[in-house]
């Protein structure tokens, strides 16, 4: 005989679910345990896992709407404290814990999220030294990403004006803490990256609590810093504050003022160095000129000696030739009492045959000239024969 009240599996499961959901004590429970059997459904964003202690375990689920608020990534072996409600999933009849909030036990949620993201990005190589870009030596435009009302921008402006007044400050105003800070920081980095309107960037803010500085630990901000084609100097908080942005930046500065000092050269020191270089160059040039003058003097003396020696030889040779020429000078013969007879037109007469009786001739002597008429000719050969 079949009982009058027969329930289906669905009815049983729904009844049990109504009992669980009807108990107000189960509407909000706090449970601590170790995560196991963790599954992250990346497409839906839901998290499925178990919480266990030394003896028992309970199934748990955290829907995407709640999981998105987590600041760390749950994983097996982490002890957590969760807040949620107890209900059952009627399809399987399995009761489970529906988690709405979760935080690590022992380590703070932010500290764990920081370490997890740091390790993840380190494995990807975002912090590698090989990725770091060198800063420009003489920047003309410095992009600054910070609050427009804080002391950071004023410190950077003052240091830059004192050290390198040639540089222009380009401020991109952003919120540096709170829920909207991270998207604004990313937008500012993308602005400078797409336009390349600056030579170097400074991103940062003044000191504050870990909560205040958290925007600079957001994954989107850190990735935007690492992807920026311009050199980036991180100046977040005080010297003891370290954010993930510091690791991704090309250079970390302990303070915003120090960031400005790293971004620009010291104009006064550069000026003094240039003056010293100019003096050294002038002294070097003077020394070089003196050396060249000495070399020129030595060469001039050598050249003069080289020119004088052949000149003296030529003068001696010329003196010998002059003497020989002087010996051949007919005038010199005339001084010894000899004469030279020429015709009227100046031709030297070497023989009586060149002249006729009655013609006039000129007789050149040392002290003058005689104009004579030939009365008689006598041939030398004839005289010798007569003798």
**What's the number of helices?**
11
Encode the helix/strand succession as letters.
HEEEHEEHEHEHEHEHEHHHEEEH
Task: Please state the second-level CATH architecture of the largest domain.
Answer: 3-Layer(aba) Sandwich
Beta-strand proportion: 15-25%
CATH fold type of the largest domain: Rossmann fold
Question: What do you see in this structure?
Answer:
By secondary structure, the chain is an alpha/beta fold. It has four domains: 9-106, OB fold (Dihydrolipoamide Acetyltransferase, E2P) (Beta Barrel), CATH 2.40.50; 120-129 and 138-265, Rossmann fold; 267-328; 334-386, no CATH class. It is 41% helix and 22% strand. It has eleven helices and 13 strands. The strands form three sheets. Strands 1-2-3-5-4 form a five-stranded mixed barrel. The protein has a five-stranded parallel β-sheet with strand order 7-6-8-9-10, with helices on both faces. Strands 11-12-13 form a three-stranded antiparallel β-sheet. The chain is rod-shaped. The chain starts with 8 loop residues before the first helix and ends with a helix.
């Amino acid at each position: 005989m079949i009982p009058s009240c027969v329930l289906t599996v669905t009815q049983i499961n729904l009844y049990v679910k109504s009992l669980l959901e009807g108990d107000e004590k189960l509407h909000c429970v706090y449970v601590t345990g170790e995560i196991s059997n963790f599954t992250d459904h990346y497409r839906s964003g839901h998290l499925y896992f178990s919480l266990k202690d030394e003896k028992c375990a309970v199934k748990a689920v955290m829907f995407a709407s709640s999981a998105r608020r987590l600041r760390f990534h749950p994983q097996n072996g982490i002890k957590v404290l969760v807040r949620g409600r107890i209900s059952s999933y009627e399809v399987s009849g399995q009761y489970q814990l529906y988690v709405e909030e979760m935080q690590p036990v022992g380590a703070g949620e932010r500290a764990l999220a920081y370490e997890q993201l740091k390790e993840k990005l380190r494995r990807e190589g975002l912090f590698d030294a090989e990725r770091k870009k060198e800063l420009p030596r003489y920047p003309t435009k410095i992009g600054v990403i910070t609050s427009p009302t804080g002391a950071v921008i004023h410190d950077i402006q003052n240091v830059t004006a004192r050290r390198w007044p040639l540089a222009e400050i380009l401020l991109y105003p952003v919120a540096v803490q709170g829920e909207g800070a991270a998207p604004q920081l990313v937008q500012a980095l993308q602005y400078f990256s797409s336009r390349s309107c600056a030579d170097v960037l400074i991103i940062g803010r003044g000191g504050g609590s870990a909560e205040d500085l958290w925007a600079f630990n957001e994954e989107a901000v850190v990735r935007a810093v690492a992807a920026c084609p311009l050199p980036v100097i991180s100046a977040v908080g005080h010297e003891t504050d370290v954010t993930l942005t510091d690791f991704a930046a090309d250079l970390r500065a302990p303070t915003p003022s120090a960031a400005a000092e790293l971004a620009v050269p010291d104009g006064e020191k550069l000026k003094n160095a240039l003056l010293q270089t100019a003096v050294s160059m002038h002294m070097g040039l003077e020394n070089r000129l003196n050396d060249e003058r000495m070399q020129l003097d030595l060469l001039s003396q050598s050249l003069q000696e080289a020119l004088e020696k052949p000149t003296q030889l030529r003068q001696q040779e010329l003196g010998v030739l002059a003497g020989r020429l002087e010996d051949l000078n007919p005038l010199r013969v005339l001084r010894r009492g000899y004469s030279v007879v020429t015709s009227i037109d100046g031709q030297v007469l070497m023989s009586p045959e060149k002249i006729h009786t009655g013609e006039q001739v000129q007789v050149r002597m040392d002290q003058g000239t005689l104009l004579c008429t030939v009365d008689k000719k006598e041939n030398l050969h004839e005289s010798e024969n007569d003798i």
